[in-house]
Each structure stands twice: as structure tokens, then as C-alpha cells.
Predict the structure.
Amino acid sequence: MSNYNIAVIKGDGIGPEIVPQAINVLNAVGEKFGHTFEFTDVLMGGCAIDEAGTPLPQETIDTCLKSDSVLLGAIGGPKWESLPGNERPEVGLLGLRAAMGLYANIRPAMLFQPLKNACPLREDIAAKGIDMVIVRELTGGIYFGERGRDGDVAYDTEKYSVSEVRRIAKVAFETAMARGKKVISIDKANVLDSSRLWREVVHETAQSYPEVEVSDMLVDNAAMQLVKDPSQFDVILANNIFGDILSDEAAMITGSIGMLASASLGDTKCGLYEPIHGSAPDIAGKNIANPIATILSAAMMLKYSFGLTAESLAIESAVNKVLESGVRTADIKDETTEKVVGTVEMGEMIISEILR
Ligand code: IPM
Ligand code: MG
């Protein structure tokens, strides 16, 4: 029996609705497998601006660093959109990633079989399947480079060092070793020096992984290939900004953005786990948001941070069983849906599958 301390950032919009469902699921897993989870709420994002006057209070950083892992809902919303750039909710998230040293963002995007009708791509393309992991560099590049504004001129800097590229490339190759052994590295090496360095270091790192097939793809072509033939991708390795953009595209082509989880990891076991989707302020407070992406993020936490593989699988298979029974939240309903349920009910159904 083990005890785990989890820092919880419910965040904004639908965050306070979906995160409690993931907490309930973790408690159910604890009950079934004999673990205890302790949760400590901390503020980040818009709610932190409102309550503490800053998107990332120091106390939040301290609590997250002391915890075994962090569970996050989503942050941001129209209420804070007119704030100056360096005071927005997003600054909290970027700051927390940096403070925790979370340089590797793992975003699996797959077509859930019970939801295959939701794929917006042509049927023959969808039939070939979608099952990829995007490995995005998370603490470097243009999001963290020097920036400024001088009257009519503004600039942001894309900058990468060999060591920054090498450590994220390693994560991609390790991820590929545990999957389809294929890495496609994204860059814009026909234009950018930072991309030429990226390419060089990726190929040098690849030499330690002779079993992995590695190739390069220009980011504009990658955007096209993702809709033309997503089945060609196993692991996508990308810098911060290209990974941000392509991971939204990859999530969208699965038709199930409300289903996709993510992990942000560094050199320690303490990671940050969050759904790929945003805070969806338009549907907040209505008990209609899909909690599954957050629940599956909790499953990723069990696997990646705590090494609890069976427990993680128990959550994934409970989710699958509920979907197979034809139950859906509103965002994933289609003509085959037997029953549309709300956020709380979806959480409860997943829990009863786990405890069955
Ligand atoms: C994401 C989000 C964030 C990012 C924003 C909210 C700063 O889009 O996690 O993909 O760009 O990293
Ligand atoms: Mg994004």
C-alpha cells in the first residue's frame, strides 16, 4: 500500500467540474488496489489572478514541487483576455512548466474504436487508424526566448541549444522503442538555423537507437500529412511551437478532443498531467463537459509518475467499457449513442466499472 500526494489545479472554465471526476476515479482506484491519494488544491491561471493577484502564486510552485505529481484541469478564458501579455493566465502555466523543469510534453492522439464515427477525415483514411504520440519540447524555443516590443515593432526569439534538443530527442526515441519504433522529427530546416541544429542533434541522438526508423518532415508538410494519411505517424518529435500547433491538429482529427490526455515530464518522477483541451468557458457550469480526458490524464499519472501500470489500465479499460455501452457526453455523441450523460454521471459510470 502506498500513499501519494497530488497537487491539484482545478483552474478555470470547466476545470472545477472535470477535475473532481478524476479525483473520484483516483480514489476508486485507491480503494480497489489499496493505495491512498491525498489531494492539495492550489491556484493557477485566471482563478489565481482573481484570488491572489498573480497567475502563479509562489505557494503553488512550492506545493507542486513538494508533491508526487500535479493534476491540472484547464486555465484561461475571456474574462482575462484583455490583460497585458505578461499577466495572463497562460503565463502561470508556462511558469509552472519552467519551475518544475517539465521539458517533455507527451500527447497521445488516437482514434478510440467506439468513437470512430467521430473522426472528421474521409472514411478510407480513418479506416487505416490513428495512433500516434506527439513528443513536444516544452520549456524552450520561442515561448521562452527573448521577446519585446518597441513601438511598431515586436519580436520573439526561437533559440535551442544542443542539450535541450538532445534531451527531448531521447524522450522521443525512448517513447518510440516502447511503441512502433518510428520517429518523425518536425522542423523548418529549409529556413531556420534553429531547425538545422535541431535536425543535426536528432540524427546524432538517433545513432544510439539503431532499431528506430527516423525521418525529418518540414512542419508545413506535416500539417498536410496529418490530414492526408495520419496512419504514417507513430512518434512525432517537435519543438515547442510546432508541437503546440500539430498536437491540436492531431487531436482534432481523432474527433475526440474531449478524450485526449497529456503528461509533462522532466528529470524527476513528478509530472504535470492535464487534458489536451482548453477551459471551454462557453460550456462551463452546465455539467455537460466531458471529464474523460482528465480522467485519462490521471491514468497517465499512475503509469508515468507512480509506475502503477495495472491501476492505469484499470481506468483505461473502464473508460472503454462505458463507451462501448453506448454512453456518451454531449461532445462525443453520434447516431449510435444510447444515452447522453453529464460530467458527474460520466465520472460515476467509470467508477462503477472500476469497482465492478
Ligand atoms: C497547450 C496550450 C498552452 C501552450 C497555452 C495555454 C500556453 O495551448 O498546452 O498546448 O501553448 O503550451
Ligand atoms: Mg496548445
